[in-house]
C-alpha cells in the first residue's frame, strides 16, 4: 500500500510557495598560474607619508643625511665599474639624492673628470611627485648632461612605464623596501635593462632599528599588556640573492652595512622618521599609533627602556640607532660574461682536498 499523501490537505498557496533564495556573493579568484602576492605594506598610506613629509621642504631636507650617505656609497659601487653608461634610471629616486651626489661629490683625484660625466642621461623616477620635484630649482639639476623626472603610478597595480632594453644601468637607493611584490618589480627591472647591464640597489633590511623595536615592544607590554607592530618588517639579507636570481640576474653580489646614527632621544628619532616619510606602513599596524596615538606613558617608558638596554653613552650623551643597509648588484645576461662550468666537469674533488689537508 502506498503511503498517504499530504498534498490534498495543503492549501493551494502553500503548494506554490518557493523556498527563499540565499543572497549570492561574488569572490575574487586568482588566476590559476599567477603567483600569490603577499600584501605586507599599505601603499596608499606610504604615499601619504611621503607626500606629507615632502610638503615641508625645509624639514625634509634636514633629514636627507641618511639618504645622501647611502646614495654616495651606492654611487661608489657604480663608479667602480669601468665603463660609460649612456642611459641610467634612478628608480625610487626620492628627492633625486643620487643626481645630487653625482654632481656635488668631487672626483677621487683632481685630475679625474667629474663623476657625472660617467653617464650621458639620467632619469629619476619615484612614486611621490612632491618628493621627486622638491629640489627642481637647485643648481645640481643643470650640472647633469640630461636629467628627466618621471612620476610612477601605484607600484602594486601599475607596471614600470619604460620600454624593454631602455637603460644601460638601473640604480635604486632606499625605496624598494616598501614594495609589496618585490619579485615582480625585479623582473620588470631586468626587462628594461639592456643585455650585460648592472642593477644596483640599497634597501633597509634585516635588523634595522632593532633598538627601537625591542624598546617599544617592552614598553607596550609593560604599559598596555600586549605587543603591537610599530616598526615595519623588512627583508632579510638571506632572501635577496634568491630574489635576484629568480628575476634573471647573474653575477650577484650582496653585502650588508650597518650605519649607526646618534640621536639626542627617542622622540628625535621618531620625528626624523616622520620627516623622512619612513613611518610604519604595515597593514597590521595600529591605525592611531603615531607619536600621539601611542600615549604619553608608552612613549616615556620607551625612552627609559631604550636608554637602559642600548645605552646613552654616545659622544653627546645621545642614543644609537642602527640602520642595516643591504646592497645588491646583479647583471642581466649578455655576451662575454664569465659563466660557471657545467656541474661535474671539475678535475678535483674539494672533499679530497680538504680531507688531505686535514691529514697533513
Structural overview:
With 360 residues, this protein is an alpha/beta fold. Helix content is 35%, strand content 16%. The protein is built from 13 helices and seven strands. It has helices at 12-16, 43-55, 57-62, 65-79, 97-104, 129-132, 140-143, 182-192, 210-224, 237-246, 266-276, 296-310, 350-359; strands at residues 85-91, 119-126, 147-151, 169-173, 198-204, 250-263, 319-331. A seven-stranded mixed sheet has the order 3-2-1-4-5-7-6, with helices on both faces. Helix 5 (97-104) links the parallel strand 1 and strand 2 (119-126). Helix 4 (65-79) crosses helix 5 (97-104) and helix 9 crosses helix 12. The protein is globular and about 60 Å long. Residues 13-36 have low confidence and may be disordered.
**Class inferred from helices and paired strands:** alpha/beta
Mean pLDDT rating? 83
Q: So what's the overall shape? A: globular
Strand order of the largest sheet: 3-2-1-4-5-7-6
Strand content: 15-25%
* Poorly predicted tracts of residues: 13-36
Q: Say how many strands there are.
A: 7
Distance between the terminal alpha carbons, to the nearest Å? 100 Å
Main sheet characteristics: 7 strands, mixed
Number of helices: 13
- Order of helix and strand elements from N to C terminus: HHHHEHEHHEEHEHHEHHEH
Helix percent reads 25-40%
